């Protein structure tokens, strides 16, 4: 539908209807006009007719009068009067002014006429105007004799030309003739209304009137009727013809002079001249012009205004029609557009539907009433991995796909759907082709066909796996939120939205109290504004902040907490929330303190520990370097502390240490450091000494002596009074001359030196000490090596009973590759210190038992026993018994030939264990001997408890047995003790015969010493044995 | 039987025919009106074609017919109302046919008499000249184009009516009107009154219009009218009408007027 046609057709319709309207309007206008004109014409014709009729009537009237005279032949006044009286002019013939008679008086008969007139009752009759003329035609009578008609007769109408002409015409034609415009003779006023007169001739009776001449000859007179046109018209219409103005003119020219009558016009009511017309009347042989004009009244009365109505309605209808046409056109266009829109919409909907149906968002299945799928949309492939064909081919589509666990839940709903119920949001799992599961949310509605019958149902499923996951996560989050850790969630403006129960527990604020507030309420005031600025800066920069902050609980407690704030951003990166978790670190703080303490302080003495010491030492060195004052490092070692520990027990030992620590701490300045670095080792760091090294050393020595003195005072350890001494090693330093390690080593060496010197002394570091230390270290290394490289060998020293060799004591010797034979005194303590004694002891045991097994092969040596020294450390080993028995069984040695020599110190701790072990070994036959009896911390109760076999008198007693009576007594006592206890006794270190003799006298018959035999290697011992067999035992 | 009835029928028919041939029944006295119109009838002379025709009619019919004089307008009104039985020289149109029946006895053309100074040479000029006033006699109808002209001008109120010819002539001379429609019987007056000098004649291109005896349908029954028509036809047939016309017109003009094809 082109634009042109769209506009053109309505325009066309408009123009057509407008033209029709115009036509109608014009037609109506013309018809109205025509009607008006017709009406006007009718009125005109009516007026004309009326006038003609009336004139005709008047003529008839006159003819009647004429007949009166024609019948009688006389002009009788009385008869005339009566006649007119009977006419009843006013009622029947209104408009007539007078009916009168005019007599034809030729000149000759004038006088006679006048006389006759006078005689007939008109005494004053004269013909006016006076004068003598040819002929006279005076009015002799006017009837009815009233009013103006009473004017004196005698007016000579012949003198008046208009009258005369009419009278002449009437005379000649014998017909009624109307005159022109006259002023009636009775009218005396100046402005009398115009009139006219109708004349009818009266001829002599019985005379022929066929020709004009005859008529003239026989003329008697005329009878006339005089009218004023105004009265005539008035009698026709009333005063005012309705809506019309009439003007009657005499003749054919409507001039003012000829105006006979005019309807008085109302002022200001003029119509255009087109509704006026002239008509010429021919009345009584005379022409009048009737001019009629229609006034507004006329038009209102007869006019039709339908023209304008038609025009307006027509125009309106035209416009309406055009509009309707346009509507129709556009309507068609609109309808087309609507149709196309609808089709497009429909198509779009269809496509949409198809798209929706086919789209991958929802999975649509149309099921028949039998529960079998009729149509599945292709998105099924995305959902469950099966194609549409595969799905349709499945025998039990629903059953195959639904997760078995959910089947019991789904099947009832499925059945309901089959029956035509609808449902929604059924959530269940489906098994995909690859075996994985998805969660579906399915809604279903029944399908009806066009008739409304139920033909199946439609399911629409959505994958809600993600949602389920999200739900799970939400649950987790909710659970997490409700965790043990206090958590607080705020919005971007730090207004608190949620807190968990742990928060309430920690801070004391319930959610109702705190939601809507900001964390400011928790501020303790311990942190300044800068702290918070930093914190927020970090949050904005890194998205979070962690740190320690002191907050205030609701009850006012200020407590430290570890606060972690994370900013939660929405997808567009704008921060939406802050999550804050904190936990009360009061405990941790305390723990930290404790850790610090533990880290840096010795638990027992509360002195700085090694770690802190190093730090302090570093500081002291630095300070010394800065100030150039010397500092000193003192190593203080308690003498015989181990022994104390062993004998009195560790608890006493701890007490001692504590008291030592106190004393040390009080001995030094506040700025100096006292630290405990080892079991019984203390270190003192002195700072701010003299700049001069010697002076500083003196200061240090002085302090060292002071310390010794202080430490030498007796200690009260529970109920025991104890005296202790210490060995102090000192080294002076200044600045960074020596490293910390070196200083420590120096002090340590100095301390050892002090110990070597005899203890209870202050010894300064000497570079020489270094070598000793080095040597010692070397020895230790060598010792380890030795065990591995089997550098040990056993020397045997014979043990005799009387003169007979009962056995030997195995004494370990170290065959050092470079140093040669290293005596036990040099390496045994080191071994015991380093713990190498265990390996060494095991070797010794093994070697001794191997030797026993070897001797067992020879009858002369089969009964010999070997005494092996067992260290306390060895014996304390849990598997010692097992080891020994293993060695015995391995070497196949005779257990009863093996003698284990113990010292008393073995019993100091856990005596029961020792006794048990001894018992176990004794059960197998192993023999025990108590070595070094008499020195050390012997306890006779131990003797009672231990399953010993032999006591060994220490060499120190034996050495002075002859010289020192005390020793002699002791020795004798020991022998007696042994005898009384049933133990064997053997004296150690017998070097002279006198000693032997004494001992023999005392009752001790078993001896070991140089007098009898020196420790010999096995070969030598074997040789000795053979010599002895020869009965001789010569000490070499 | 049938033969008898047929014979009777024939007899009746012939009676009717003879009765018809016998002329109109003079059951009453009839009225006939004349109007003053040139040669048709002049009041002054009391003579005219119509008068002669009326006399002839009276004589032939043997009925009493009272002749009166009235205006043409009145004549038509009375014919319509049935108050008047007859008039003469009338032409028919659809409207008149409803109340009047006609018996034709002459025909003539109509002409437009215009003043020379009106500058009208053909019909169309008349219509376009705004100042043209046409004079007609009230109730007169003419030939087709003449009627058209009159009607057209009447809508424009450019028609002046008159009761008779006389004032029209005067008006024409006095330039009150510029034209009037005339028929041949108006000619003498035209000549006489010196109208011819100042006027020209424009022809209407219409055929001659038949004029005839006007019979009021209301007053006369169709049978009577037929009788009267037959009477007129007789008059025509036997040349009476020609003779009357030749009294007033030249023979060829009279001939052309009297010899005409009777319209169906």
Overview of the structural elements:
The complex is a heterodimer of chains A (1036) and B (264). Chain A is of the alpha+beta class. Helix content of chain A is 47%, strand content 23%. Chain A contains 34 helices and 38 strands. Chain A has an eight-stranded mixed beta barrel with strand order 29-30-32-33-34-35-36-37, surrounded by six helices. A five-stranded antiparallel β-sheet of chain A has the order 4-1-7-6-5, sandwiched between helices. In chain A, strands 13-12-16-15-14 form a five-stranded antiparallel β-sheet, sandwiched between helices. In chain A, strand 23 (673-676) and strand 24 (681-686) form a beta hairpin. Chain B has 264 residues and is an alpha/beta fold. Helix content of chain B is 44%, strand content 20%. Chain B has a five-stranded mixed β-sheet with strand order 2-1-3-10-4. A five-stranded mixed β-sheet of chain B has the order 7-6-8-5-9. In chain B, helix 11 (240-248) crosses helix 12 (251-258). Chain B is elongated and about 80 Å long. The interface between A and B is medium-sized, with 29 and 26 residues.
Low-pLDDT regions of chain A:
1031-1036
Sequence stretches where pLDDT stays below 50 over 5 or more residues of chain B: none
Fraction of residues in β-strands of chain B: 15-25%
Strand order of the largest sheet of chain A: 29-30-32-33-34-35-36-37
Number of helices of chain A: 34
Helix content of chain B: 40-55%
Using only C-alpha atoms, the radius of gyration of chain A works out to: 85 Å
Beta percentage of chain A is 15-25%
Please write the string of helix (H) and strand (E) elements of chain B: HEHEHEHEEHEHEHEHHEEHHH
How many strands appear in the DSSP assignment of chain B?
10
Roughly how many Å apart are the termini of chain B? 39 Å
User: What form of chain A results from the Cα inertia axes?
Assistant: rod-shaped
Mean pLDDT of chain B: 84
The chain pair forming the largest interface, with residue counts per chain, is: A-B, 29 and 26 residues
Number of helices of chain B: 12
Mean pLDDT of chain A: 83
Which radius of gyration of chain B do the C-alpha atoms yield? 21 Å
Question: Could you give the order of strands across the largest sheet of chain B?
Answer: 2-1-3-10-4
Please give the largest β-sheet of chain B: 5 strands, mixed
Biggest sheet record of chain A: 8 strands, mixed, barrel
């Amino acid at each position: 539908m082109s634009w042109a046609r769209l506009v053109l057709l309505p325009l066309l319709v408009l123009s057509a209807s407008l033209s029709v309207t115009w036509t109608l309007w014009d037609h109506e206008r013309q018809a109205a006009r025509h009607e008006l004109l017709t009406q006007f014409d009718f009125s005109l014709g009516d007026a004309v007719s009326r006038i003609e009729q009336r004139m005709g009537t008047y003529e008839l009237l006159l003819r009647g009068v004429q007949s009166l005279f024609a019948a009688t032949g006389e002009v009788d006044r009385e008869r005339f009067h009566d006649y007119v009286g009977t006419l009843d002019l006013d009622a029947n013939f209104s408009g007539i002014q007078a009916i009168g008679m005019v007599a034809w008086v030729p000149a000759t008969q004038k006088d006679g006429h006048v006389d006759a007139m006078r005689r007939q009752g008109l005494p004053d009759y004269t013909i006016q105007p006076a004068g003598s003329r040819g002929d006279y035609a005076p009015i002799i009578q006017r009837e009815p004799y009233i009013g103006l008609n009473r004017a004196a007769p005698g007016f000579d109408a012949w003198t008046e030309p208009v009258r005369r002409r009419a009278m002449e015409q009437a005379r000649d034609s014998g017909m009624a003739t109307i005159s022109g415009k006259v002023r009636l003779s009775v009218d005396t006023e100046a402005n009398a209304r115009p009139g006219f007169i109708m004349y009818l001739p009266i001829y002599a009776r019985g005379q022929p009137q066929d020709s004009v001449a005859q008529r003239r000859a026989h003329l008697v007179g005329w009878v006339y009727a005089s009218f004023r046109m105004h009265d005539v018209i008035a009698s026709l219409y009333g005063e005012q013809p309705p809506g019309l103005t009439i003007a009657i003119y005499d003749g054919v020219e409507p001039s003012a002079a000829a105006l006979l009558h005019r309807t008085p016009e109302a002022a200001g009511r003029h119509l255009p001249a087109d509704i006026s017309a002239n008509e010429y009347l021919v009345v009584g042989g005379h022409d009048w012009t009737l001019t009629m004009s229609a006034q507004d009244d006329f038009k209102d009365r007869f006019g039709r205004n339908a023209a304008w109505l038609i025009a307006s309605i027509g125009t309106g209808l035209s416009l309406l029609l055009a509009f309707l046409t346009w509507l129709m056109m556009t309507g068609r266009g609109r309808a087309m557009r609507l149709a196309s829109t609808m089709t497009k919409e429909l198509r779009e909907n269809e496509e949409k539907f198809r798209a929706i149906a086919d789209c991958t968002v929802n999975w649509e299945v149309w099921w028949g009433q039998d529960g079998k799928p009729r149509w599945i949309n292709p998105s099924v492939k995305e959902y469950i991995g099966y194609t549409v064909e595969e799905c349709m081919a499945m025998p039990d589509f629903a059953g195959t796909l639904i997760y078995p666990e959910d089947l019991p839940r789904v099947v009832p709903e499925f059945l309901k759907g089959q029956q035509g119920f609808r449902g929604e949001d059924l959530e269940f799992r489906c098994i995909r082709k690859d075996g994985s599961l998805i969660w579906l949310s399915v809604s279903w509605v029944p399908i009806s066909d066009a008739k409304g019958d139920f033909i199946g149902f439609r399911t629409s499923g959505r994958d809600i796996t993600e949602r389920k996951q999200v739900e799970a996560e939400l649950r987790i989050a909710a659970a997490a939120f409700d965790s043990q850790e206090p958590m607080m969630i705020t919005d971007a403006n730090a207004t608190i939205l949620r807190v968990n129960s742990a928060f309430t527990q920690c801070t004391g604020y319930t959610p109702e109290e705190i939601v809507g507030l900001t964390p400011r309420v928790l501020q303790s005031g311990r942190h300044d504004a800068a702290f918070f600025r930093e914190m927020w800066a970090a949050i904005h920069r890194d998205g979070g902040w962690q740190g320690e902050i002191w907050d205030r609980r609701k009850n006012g407690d200020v407590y430290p907490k570890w606060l972690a704030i994370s900013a939660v951003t929405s997808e567009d990166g704008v921060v939406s929330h802050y999550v804050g978790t904190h936990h009360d670190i009061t405990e941790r703080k305390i723990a930290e303190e404790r850790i610090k303490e533990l880290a840096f302080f010795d638990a027992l003495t509360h002195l700085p520990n090694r770690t802190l010491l190093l730090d302090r030492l570093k500081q002291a060195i630095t300070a010394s370097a800065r100030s150039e004052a010397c500092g000193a490092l003192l190593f203080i070692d308690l003498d015989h502390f181990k022994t104390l520990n062993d004998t009195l027990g560790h608890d006493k030992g701890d007490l001692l240490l504590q008291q030592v620590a106190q004393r040390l701490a009080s001995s030094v300045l506040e700025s100096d450091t006292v630290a405990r670095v080892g079991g019984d080792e203390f270190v003192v760091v002195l700072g701010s000494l003299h700049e001069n090294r010697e002076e500083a050393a003196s200061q240090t020595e002085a302090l060292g002596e002071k310390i010794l003195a202080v430490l030498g005072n007796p200690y009260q350890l529970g109920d025991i009074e104890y005296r202790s001494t210490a060995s102090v090693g000192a080294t002076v330093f200044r600045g960074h001359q020596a490293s910390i390690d070196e200083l420590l080593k120096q002090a340590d060496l100095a301390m050892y030196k002090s110990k070597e010197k005899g203890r209870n002394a202050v010894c300064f570091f000497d570079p020489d000490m270094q070598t000793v230390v080095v040597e010692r270290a070397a020895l230790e290394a060598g010792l380890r090596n030795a065990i591995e490289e089997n550098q040990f060998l056993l020397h045997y020293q014979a043990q005799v009973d009387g003169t007979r060799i009962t056995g030997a004591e195995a004494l370990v010797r170290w065959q050092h590759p470079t140093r040669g034979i290293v005596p036990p005194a040099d390496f045994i303590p080191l071994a015991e210190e380093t713990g190498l004694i265990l390996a060494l002891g095991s070797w010794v045991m093994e070697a001794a038992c191997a030797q026993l097994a070897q001797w067992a092969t020879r009858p002369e040596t089969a009964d010999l026993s070997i005494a092996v020294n067992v260290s306390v450390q060895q014996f304390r080993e849990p598997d010692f018994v097992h080891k020994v028995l293993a060695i015995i069984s391995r070497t196949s040695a005779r257990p009863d030939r093996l003698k284990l020599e113990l010292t008393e110190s073995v019993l100091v701790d856990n005596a029961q264990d020792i006794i048990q072990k001894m018992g176990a070994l004794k059960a197998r036959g192993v023999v025990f001997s108590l070595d070094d009896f008499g020195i050390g911390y012997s306890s006779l109760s131990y003797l009672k408890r231990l399953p010993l076999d032999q006591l060994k008198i220490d060499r120190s007693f034996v050495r002075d047995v002859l010289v020192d009576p005390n020793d002699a007594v002791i020795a004798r006592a020991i022998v007696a003790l042994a005898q009384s206890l049933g133990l064997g006794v053997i004296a150690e270190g017998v070097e002279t015969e006198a000693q032997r003799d004494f001992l023999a006298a005392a009752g001790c018959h078993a001896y070991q010493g140089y007098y009898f035999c020196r420790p010999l290697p096995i070969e030598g011992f074997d040789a000795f044995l053979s010599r002895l067999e020869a009965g001789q035992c010569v000490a070499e | 039987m049938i033969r008898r009835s047929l014979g009777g029928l024939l007899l009746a028919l012939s009676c009717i025919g003879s009765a018809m041939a016998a002329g109109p029944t003079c059951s009453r006295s009839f009225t006939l009106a004349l109007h003053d119109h040139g040669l048709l009838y002049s009041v002054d002379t009391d003579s005219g074609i119509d008068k002669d025709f009326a006399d002839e009619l009276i004589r032939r019919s043997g009925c009493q017919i009272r002749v009166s004089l009235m205006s043409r307008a009145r004549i038509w009104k009375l014919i319509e109302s049935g108050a008047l039985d007859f008039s003469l020289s009338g032409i028919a149109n659809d409207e008149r046919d409803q109340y009047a029946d006609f018996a034709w006895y002459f025909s003539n053309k109509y002409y437009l008499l215009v003043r020379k100074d009106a500058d009208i040479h053909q019909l169309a000029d008349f219509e376009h000249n705004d100042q043209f006033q046409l004079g007609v006699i009230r109730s007169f109808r003419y030939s087709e184009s003449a009627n058209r002209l009159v009607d057209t001008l009447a809508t424009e109120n450019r028609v002046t009516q008159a009761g008779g010819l006389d004032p029209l002539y005067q008006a024409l001379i006095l330039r009150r009107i510029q034209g009037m429609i005339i028929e041949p019987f108006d000619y003498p007056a035209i000549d006489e009154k010196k109208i011819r000098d100042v006027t020209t004649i424009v022809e209407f291109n219409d055929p001659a219009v038949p004029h005839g005896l006007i019979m009021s349908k209301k007053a006369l029954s169709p049978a009577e009218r037929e009788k009267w028509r037959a009477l007129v036809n007789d008059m025509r047939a036997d040349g009476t009408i020609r003779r009357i016309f030749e009294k007033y017109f030249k023979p060829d003009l009279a001939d052309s007027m009297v010899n005409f094809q009777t319209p169906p």
